[in-house]
Amino acid sequence: MSIATAVARDLLRIGAVTLRPDEPFTWASGRLSPIYTDNRLTLSHPDVRQRLADGFVTLARRAGGADAVSGTATAGIPHATLLADRLDLPLSYVRSQAKAHGKGNQIEGRVTDGQRVLVVEDLVSTGGSVIAAVEALRDAGALVQTVLAVFTYGLDAAADAVSDAGFTLRTLTDFPALLEVAREDGLLDDAAIQTLEDWRRDPEGWSQSRGGA
């Protein structure tokens, strides 16, 4: 079994990913979606947590050398911590914005000029939050060429944004793997699978057609 299949099955089994094509979720943006992801739930399952850590080590080695690891606040921090520990590398994390008090840090931990940093995120949807983290690290002098994530929806807009930002996104699993597992395990019928595929191709249009933003 591939790591993408194993992780997809884990995420569905523990409820970290929930599929509801007939009763869509409302995201913070107001958009409706047939899928909701909360990868924080993986932390409560030691077997899943360790499988993710092992997978991240494999992805990190495929990406080449690194001098440090940085997690995105907050959901990327635990996975980044496990990876940094496995690789015996320095660790930092990046806030969504600088603190309004104290030293006003956006990056917590030490990042040095020219340091090759692997960024770890739990989920990539539009790509906006992880791109902001990469830009903050680059502004601090880091060299960021690769972002690792547990899961991505694989939206075209996110792929374009990541490409424009100039880094490579490597994920443990993705939307096609998730749908394949859902089909194989009898979690969704063909009509429901098609609904999810329609959403991925045009999430905005899909939402608006159902009364969402």
> For the terminal residues, how far apart are their CA atoms?
38 Å
Rg, rounded, reads: 17 Å
Strand order of the largest sheet: 7-6-5-8-9-10
* Percentage beta strand: 15-25%
How many H/I helical runs?
8
Question: In terms of structural class, how would the helical and strand content be classed?
Answer: alpha/beta
Order of helices and strands: HEEEEHEHEEEHEHEHHH
Q: What's the CATH topology label?
A: Rossmann fold
Helical coverage, percent range:
40-55%
How many β-strand stretches? 10
The main pleated sheet reads as:
6 strands, mixed
CATH class: Alpha Beta
Low-confidence stretches: none
CATH architecture name: 3-Layer(aba) Sandwich
Mean pLDDT: 96
Query: What is the count of structural domains?
Result: 1
| Morphology call | globular
Plain-language structure description:
- There is one protein chain.
- This protein is of the alpha/beta class and 213 residues long.
- The protein has one domain (3-206): 3-Layer(aba) Sandwich (Rossmann fold), CATH 3.40.50.
- It is built from eight helices and ten strands.
- The chain has helices spanning 3-13, 46-63, 77-87, 128-139, 156-165, 175-184, 190-201, 203-208, and strands at residues 17-19, 25-26, 32-33, 35-37, 68-72, 91-94, 107-108, 116-124, 143-152, 168-174.
- The strands form three sheets. Strands 7-6-5-8-9-10 form a six-stranded mixed sheet, with helices on both faces.
- Helix 4 links the parallel strand 8 and strand 9.
- Helix 1 runs antiparallel to helix 2, helix 1 crosses helix 6 (175-184) and helix 2 crosses helix 3 (77-87).
- The model has no long low-confidence stretch (mean pLDDT 96).
